[in-house]
Design brief:
There is one protein chain. The chain is an alpha+beta fold. About 30% of the residues lie in helices and about 30% in strands. The protein has nine helices and twelve strands. Helix 1 packs parallel to helix 2. It is globular and about 60 Å long.
Amino acid sequence: MNHLYDVPAPAKLNLFLHVTGRRDDGYHLLQTVFVFIDLADRLQFELRNDGVILRQTSLPGIDHDSDLIVRAARALQKATGTAKGATIHVQKNIPAGGGLGGGSSDAASTLVALNRLWQTGLSRHQLQQLALPLGADVPVFVFGQNTFAEGIGEDFTACKVPEQAYLVFQPRLGISTPAIFTDPGLCRHTPLVTVQDVQQSWSLPVAQTGSIIQPAFFGHNDLEAVACRQHPGLQQLVDWLGDRNIKARMTGSGSCFFAPFQAYEEALRVKHELDDALPAFNRGASVPVAQIMAARGLARHPLHDWLKT
């Protein structure tokens, strides 16, 4: 038996995010496509036989016991009755609070890895049920495939996403998700689409503007307009990119934006050009950009095959 696992926890992008309604209990109804990218945290789990869950790595601003990683591990312990524990080391590479799903991904990789390390034998469906109380996005990472999700995020279907690369832009800004969803100006009545609508859109030819070639976007992110109105510096970033013929979209409730490209080499080429221009933008920006990251899209989660269907 392996007593040590070192696993990735990949980031996600919302390729679009439509708000289609709101329930009587206040929860918003959404439609979105999640795609995994190779920007990832790294988690290391070392088996313990004393039942202790110990996150050895100190993470600024993240209390040990309230960390989703620790909560996920304890939820699996409670559900299975195992007496085993783990010492956990964390390497954070995904920016926090940017709409990239780092915390949710960490929790999902924790469930999948410890289910294997502890030999607790839960199925994918059982882990998805265990993941839901940890956060709406956590089950998607356990599902392990690029996903068309709807409802309040609990109803999802595998969605084949074209092989693409992405530039991810991280503004130096934290956004309050509740402030976005409670904004009276948020559109809450975008018409419903189907997974077939989404997949058919990817058969359209790519768009070329000047020397920039980008795959077409499907739909929109209803949260983006609200975020840009609440934080005008975000619109400044969108306009700056648009002046360079780059179309970008916010992921989740922000604050990160992304731009798709057909090939990783093309994304890197554009990244180098933007890195050179970024200092001048930041000098005049009300919301500077901390970094621009190039990432490849993933066909499925790296730990997908660790679970029974």
